[in-house]
């Protein structure tokens, strides 16, 4: 197997996944913001809120359609570039994907259609129910995808069958309630809410700078800042939960996040800044904050956090134990069909949890049992991911998260206690930061996925064994095709979004203007109430 094929296949999947994730968080967040706005409309019967709901809904529709297109093409790669992965763990990975299609995506697509075409056909309350069903289905769809991904990060509820040579599902409940998957879902959903909040805030700030659609923009800022502040704070809280889960179940990833070369005694400190050096196995110019990592990774001040030195030794021990499992597996496969020794199978299951570690040796030798001591040590070293991308992606994500909290808090304060008086510099800030939450979201995916290497399924299936038997040229050609296709979709997305944002709201204009005129007359005839 050419190692270049593995890297090229990884690059293709990373490119398509990261591009697809440009659409996902905005869809997740906008679906909830739109439902909130429509709720206000149904409660108050004020046309301005109906107009807001329809306007932001049109942008949601554009993003939703293109997100579906990118997601479908991404899934083709499981069978195209990752055939052995699909064969080896398809029974487990395919289950939540099937549930997502049947229970979430079909529901989402159905209610999206009802929402767009049901304004004049459904009662206000029925249409509001549809809006919330769209939001629920959108988030439910993300749940099933992240259950599948969470299983790859922390495989539970499955075991290897030595007769079929595949992983098989033994407990769907364990897969569904996987702690890593649940933490990933709530953290990712909250991040999506922040993305949508910053988007709505930024577009609304642009309208105020241009002195257009002022009433829509002011109210949209009020909703986005309140919802965004709550979401940004929840990202921090739920991110702490993800950090704790990583400290318990993904220790190598935790060490990569911290560039923790040696086991950190309690209470472990957090590295605010540094330059990780894998060759020297140290972090140059490190600036530490005492106690913080101990609280994140162990929720205590008296537990150490293992570093690469200890984890690498543990990997070596698991490789050696996995070799016992591999030897027993080979003998089971060599026996005649139906005559496998039950005692040998029982012995295999005693060591099978480490079989994946023995498979790491296949990168260096066809039969892992023939591996030299040097190759075993090298395979143990391979379990350490490339540190600097994970280290810096995490810090960029956290730094941007803090910036979102401050930004949303400022706009919430001005909207709630300063009668919507926003300084011009703050409006420019709102416009400038529009891309920032996407950067933070992409950094989060880099931490999650890059930090899992060298595994496709952690501890079970190495990435180097997961790929299809394709030629370098075939993968390069499809990579170029996907990049061209996605670049085209990206241009379409930007042009459509910009077009509809420039046009502004187009529905209920006369009704809204009449109501606004009446509303202003009422306010001028009485003391300002600050009502919206």
UniProtKB/TrEMBL annotation:
Transmembrane segments: 17-43, 55-72, 92-117, 129-152, 185-209, 221-239, 392-413, 425-447, 467-492
Topology in membrane: Multi-pass membrane protein
Keywords assigned: Cell inner membrane, Cell membrane, Electron transport, Heme, Iron, Membrane, Metal-binding, Oxidoreductase, Transmembrane, Transmembrane helix, Transport
Chief place where the protein resides: membrane
Top-level lineage group: Bacteria
Enzyme class at the top of the EC tree: oxidoreductase
Subcellular location, record wording: Cell inner membrane
GO cellular component, one term: plasma membrane
Family per record: Belongs to the cytochrome ubiquinol oxidase subunit 1 family.
Protein name: Cytochrome bd-I oxidase subunit I, CydA
């Amino acid at each position: 197997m050419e190692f270049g094929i593995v890297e090229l296949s990884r690059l293709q999947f990373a490119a398509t996944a990261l591009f697809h994730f440009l659409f996902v968080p905005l869809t997740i967040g906008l679906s909830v913001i739109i439902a909130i706005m429509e709720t206000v409309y149904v409660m108050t019967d004020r046309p301005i809120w109906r107009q807001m709901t329809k306007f932001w809904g049109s942008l949601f529709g554009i993003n939703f359609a293109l997100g579906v297109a990118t997601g479908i093409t991404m899934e083709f790669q499981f069978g195209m570039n990752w055939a052995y992965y699909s064969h080896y763990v398809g029974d487990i990975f395919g289950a939540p994907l099937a549930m997502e299609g049947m229970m979430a995506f079909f529901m989402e697509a159905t209610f999206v259609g009802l929402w767009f075409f049901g304004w004049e056909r459904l009662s206000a309350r029925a249409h509001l129910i549809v809006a919330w069903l769209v939001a629920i289905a959108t988030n439910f769809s993300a749940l099933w995808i992240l259950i599948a991904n969470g299983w790859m990060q922390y495989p539970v509820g499955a075991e290897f069958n030595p007769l079929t040579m595949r992983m098989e599902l033994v407990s769907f409940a364990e897969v569904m309630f996987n702690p890593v998957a649940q933490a990933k879902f709530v953290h990712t959903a909250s991040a999506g809410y922040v993305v949508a909040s910053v988007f709505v805030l930024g577009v609304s700030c642009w309208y105020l700078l241009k002195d257009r659609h002022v009433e829509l923009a002011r109210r949209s800022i009020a909703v986005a800042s309140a919802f965004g502040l709550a979401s940004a704070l929840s990202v921090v809280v739920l991110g702490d939960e993800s950090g704790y889960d990583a400290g318990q179940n993904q220790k190598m990833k935790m060490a990569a996040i911290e560039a923790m070369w040696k086991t950190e005694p309690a209470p472990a400190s957090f590295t605010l800044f540094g330059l990780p050096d894998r060759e020297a196995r140290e972090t140059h110019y490190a600036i530490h904050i005492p106690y913080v990592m101990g609280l994140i990774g162990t929720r205590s001040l008296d537990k150490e956090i293992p570093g690469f030195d200890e984890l690498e030794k543990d990997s070596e021990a698991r490789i050696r134990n996995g070799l016992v499992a591999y030897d027993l597996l080979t003998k089971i496969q060599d026996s005649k069909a139906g005559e496998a020794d039950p005692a040998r199978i029982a012995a295999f299951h005693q060591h099978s949890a480490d079989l994946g570690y023995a498979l790491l040796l296949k990168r260096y030798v066809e039969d892992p049992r023939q591996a030299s001591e040097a190759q075993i040590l090298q395979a143990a070293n391979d379990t350490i991911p490339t540190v600097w991308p994970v280290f810096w992606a995490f810090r960029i994500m956290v730094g941007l998260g803090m910036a979102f909290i401050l930004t949303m808090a400022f706009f919430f304060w001005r909207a709630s206690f300063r009668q919507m008086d926003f300084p011009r510099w703050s409006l420019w800030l709102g416009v400038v930061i529009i891309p920032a939450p996407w950067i933070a979201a992409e950094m989060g995916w880099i931490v999650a996925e890059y930090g899992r290497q060298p595994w496709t399924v952690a501890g079970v299936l190495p990435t180097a064994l997961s790929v299809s038997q394709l030629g370098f040229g075939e993968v390069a050609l499809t990579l170029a095709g996907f990049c061209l296709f996605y670049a085209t979709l990206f241009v379409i997305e930007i042009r459509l979004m910009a077009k509809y944002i420039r046009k502004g709201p187009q529905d209920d204009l006369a009704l809204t203007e009449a109501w606004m005129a009446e509303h202003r007359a009422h306010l001028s005839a009485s003391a300002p109430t600050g009502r919206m």
